[in-house]
Design goal:
The complex is a heterodimer of chains A (213) and B (230). Chain A has 213 residues and is an alpha+beta fold. Chain A is built from six helices and six strands. The chains are: A alpha+beta (213), B alpha/beta (230). Strand 4 of chain A pairs antiparallel with strand 11 of chain B, so a sheet runs across the interface.
Chain lengths: 213, 230
Amino acid sequence: MTDDSFRAAVAAGVIGAESAYASLLRSIVEVARAIFSAQRSSIFLLDEETDELVFEALAGDEEQGLIGTRIPSSTGIAGWTLVTRQPLVIENLEEDPRHSREVAEKTGYVPKGIMSVPLLVEERALGVLQVLDRPARPGFSLQEMDVLGLFANQAAIALDLLQRSRRAKAALAGGDADVVVVARLAAALDELVEDDRARALRLLEALEDVLRT
Amino acid sequence: MCILDSGVDPNHPKVGEVQGAVEITVDADGNPTASPDEEGDLCGHGTACAGVIRGLAPECEIHSVRVLGAGYTGSGPILLGGLRWAVEQGFDVVNMSLSTTKRQFAEVLHELADKAYFNRTILVASAHNMPVESYPWRFSSVISVGSHSEADSRRFYYNPNPPVEFFARGVDVELAWMGGKTIRATGNSFATPHISGICALVRSKHPQLTPFQLKSVLHLIADNMGGSAA
């Protein structure tokens, strides 16, 4: 297998994985919406290179044309959920016409109430999950906040996988020679059988020890 | 009282006079500069916190230190710069309704929290109720705050199972908002200024208290310990 064909094969695998993760993203917002019986749910992901939040997934509306819209990373309720790392819930957002207008321009929908939670994995902030317009209730319960936090944690783990997949794809598309060499080595190892495979693994483990010292 | 946040709207009736407002910027080497803040609040978060504090401690001086709004990427160094500046000014209480998950900032934050503690500056910070490591609320030199769901702004509880030390009103709180509006919101961000306001009240009567003594007073007057801040 040539370098190019090998790279194409691996990239195809990664792209496939990305498609699956995109479905997972969609599933996350649909479940978030269902948990809280809300009108909508959406995810913004942080693009660290441009320091922007990107509107990545939406549940509750067939209009998906605004997916990909970008906003500066510390503006709006999504932005300050990200920079403060603090979840929050606002009940009567229509009181803030400036925010409503901005949100309408970016997402095509003006919520009355919003639950917003940062997506955190270890020390990284990946983005923000929002649940819009759940049914009016006499006071928000702390249990709901806990559920929101737990669900956001699960979503963040999935998103972390998505971002790793994207980085791998970008490295392969850019022809990163180091990555291709390692991937080819992995493919060669995978084709070996029994004793040969065990010997090769021992060799690689020894190499790893050398590299780590 | 220092509010380390997104700025404070000085024209909101729930906030009243703001005695000082600066914006923190950092240069390429991470050195912070505090310059007069002419923009007020960029998003409403700081104004909301200021309104809670003003409601509890009507006569306290409010100083805004804007560290949010310049984007995510630079937010860590600006936060550190703002806290360093606030500690150097010797404020009685610093409200921090925010946190960072970046480990690279944890050590410096820890040093600043200790410096504040020994300089008699009380740091009050929002706790996290998510399964992540974040700072500075976890440091023992800081007063950390979570939420209870009762509609009483002066009621707060001591938590015998730290790291969260106190629970204050944080659910369905009426808050000052942009453009002179009010809004109802939930979050530890809004429980924190309740404890900051109570700290300001205690400090106004007993200015000589150290952070250790003030935390002990909070423990003794907490509603589940037989006391009351009412």
